[in-house]
Predict the 3D structure of the following.
Amino acid sequence: MLAPNSHLRQLEAESIHIFREVAASFSKPVMLYSIGKDSSVMLRLAMKAFYPAKPPFPFLHVDTTWKFREMIEFRDRMARELGFDLLVHINEDGVRDGINPFDHGSNTHTHIMKTVALRQALDKYGFDAAFGGARRDEEKSRAKERIFSFRDSNHGWDPKHQRPEMWNIYNTRVGAGESIRVFPLSNWTELDIWQYIMLEDIPIVPLYFAAKRPVVERDGMLVLRDDDRMKLRDGEQVDERMVRFRTLGCYPLTGAIESDAKTLEAIVSEMLTARTSERQGRLIDRDEAGSMEKKKREGYF
Amino acid sequence: MAAHRDIKAIGEDMRRFLTEQEEKSTLRFLTCGSVDDGKSTLIGRLLYDTKLIFEDQLASLEADSRKHGTTGEDIDLALLVDGLEAEREQGITIDVAYRFFATPARRFIVADTPGHEQYTRNMATGASTADLAVVLVDARQGVLQQTRRHSFIASLLGIRHIVLAVNKIDLVDFSQTVFDKIIAEYRAFATGLGFETIVEIPMSARFGDNVTARSARTGWYGGPTLLEYLETVIVSAPGADNPLRFPVQYVNRRNSDFRGFSGTLASGSVSVGDTVVVAKSGKAAKVRRIINQGEEANDATSGDAVTLVLDAEVEVSRGNMLVAPDNRPHVADQFMAKIVWFDDHALLPGRSYILRTQSDQSTATITELKYRVDVNTFAHDAAKSLEMNEIGVCNISTQAPVAFDEYSKNRYTGAFVLIDRITNATAGAGMIEFPLRRASNVHLQALDVNKSLRAEIKHQKPVVLWFTGLSGSGKSTIANLLEKKLHVGGRHTTILDGDNVRHGLNRDLGFTEEDRVENIRRVGEVAKLMVEAGLITIVSFISPFRAERRMVREMMEENEFIEVFIDTPFEECVKRDPKGLYARALKGEIKNFTGVDSPYEVPERADIHLQTVGHAPEELADKLEIWLKERGYC
Ligand SMILES: Nc1nc2c(ncn2[C@@H]2O[C@H](COP(=O)(O)OP(=O)(O)O)[C@@H](O)[C@H]2O)c(=O)[nH]1
């Protein structure tokens, strides 16, 4: 149980309020479930918001087909244990064209298998509101994102015409084809997420904890060779190293860090002394300055 | 998970650390001031000095500083927080950004709000959730119009604590004289804004003086540094001591034996066994069960997100409030409020908007714009509209009563936003002053009540929807469905039905040709009166003759008469024969029956032509509703 009046309880209350606001005002909401630690926290918050009922919306995983195997196992286990309604969407056009991060680069791969795939899924089901796990502390352009972030009928985000968000009154009105992305974790920081996971005993994908894993050093990144679709280049070799992940995504694009942190306590301690920010491990942010903002305008989270 | 819980020494330290972290309070504040006063630099400085900048961010900051920076060779701390590309290029902050940092004593959420006048709405956004404002002034410039405007908005939105940061003190040689002059000017201006505390600090955001460390260069200053002050200032929120306000956000119906009301306590507290009252109906019930943030509990207090189960079946839906029986909110459909306008379409009295409170929603009209406030002099100016970024005081009338408190008593139950009905933009924000008794708001002498005013108060355009078609074609069914839909949407409607009118007003008329004409003439006159009254009037009459239908059309004004042809083939009507009339007519028991021995003249150019075969009545009613909406009737 969280201490009364603690900031985590306040954050929890705010997030629950947001979940309910969406359930009450939209006709077809969905939660974008990305299986990472933030999604795990969102899942717990959604369960609390509607207890004793189940969350009144499905959970959608946009599968790029390059996620860590342990993520997929974890996803299916959670859906089974908690009994939520899981939808999985894959961009079949991308699969047919053999899009992959090795040959096409992170930008193209992410665009087709994630951004386009997400748009496909939203259009296919006609969702008018989609929960995402983005936090404002993650990245500069996210610091300016609203909690209820309006998207036009092409899923585009216009940073200059965001709706003012006053008090906790949210403008949930959308026209035909338009939608809202909702970020219940907007005001959480990375530290808050870890603290909450610890105090609430929230299951997370084991990849967050250090273990001996087969990794390849490539372009200054430690890549876990999760399957043999990853071909070794000349001079590369697979080493068993003690590593863990600060963030989870497509395995070829997500760098591991060397670490001994096998417990949540150790992770938090490592985080507090870390000298690099969380997103550094993600290749997509480094491609060009302001790249996150560009992606968001196109409909990436 | 338990496997990972082998708590070693590090684990215990960390647990202790996290427990301390968890017990920290959060202070939400905003920074504001004129462009280039140094807000972004100040926040960058706070993040930098509290070690929240990571190495990779520092590296990209150095690169950015060379590209966009304004500080020559030095790192430009402002670039840490100026997130969007457009603003990096223009070198200004254009949107409110939220930043997070923590010290061992407290956790902070900072709203960094822009200085340009056209972005005042973002300042109001930041202020709406903040408890304290740091108002920056450039020591070289002193108090500017933006300083006044922002202080005024802070006060308007209920902020009671101000830090006046006299920045760039390095550029005035750390002069106490300059500092004293500025604070005197600020105090003179700020009295009357209702601030409980104003603390002035001389500082240099760029070089760090008095931000987190005391400056040796301002020896004459004996007060706290900014961070010291932020760590210790006490801001009281409307808390558990206030009366219970529980706006119902969502009704949780897990199954037929569970019905819970979900929402966040805006103030007060509640325990199992307490009696609560439904604000809009006054009905009372006892709290039987409390689910507090996912767990069974005996009580809940202000700020908690809960689900309450009551012991009695009372009618409560989203938008209503459960409240303390001995201290209830106002329930009214007219009130006076202060408005900050955001939209580039000006606020206009008489126009209707969607008013949204924390959980309620209603259409609303500004019945009177009392005055506009000049933020420099606080003078009340007469105004006919409120332009973007202007502030005014208005009387507002909502279509349905709303439960609320004065904003000065409760920031969460006294606030609302106004939404443009066409663009859905958040057009303005309002803070309720007090309810109005109807009488005090009606200016009889000023109003020449006419058709358009009657319609305006109903937020609709009056019209006659004239349903014509054979007996049994589906006129009444569709008319009833349509009326229900319009009614749910808050429209004022009425139905004139052939059978009913014949039983009353027209009971002296039979079915000869002359009587049929008179029948239609009378109904036309009645429909016209209904339109005068501002109603959407659905007339459901066989009305077989073109000439009579044209006669009625000509009694009305342009666009007030919509002919709707309910087209069902004769054979189909005979088959349906809901009242058994065709059977009797065909046997010759009823004379002059339309379609049998009296003609039906099919409309030549009906405004709307609905074929009923193969379409459900709901679908057709939907189609009509959309037709009306698209043309602005409702
Ligand atoms: N000398 C001096 N310059 C400052 C100080 N604070 C900010 N500046 C400079 O003033 C300019 C505008 O600062 P910025 O933080 O972007 O202002 P904002 O528009 O209020 O966010 C930048 O060139 C800063 O480096 C200060 O305390 N002293």
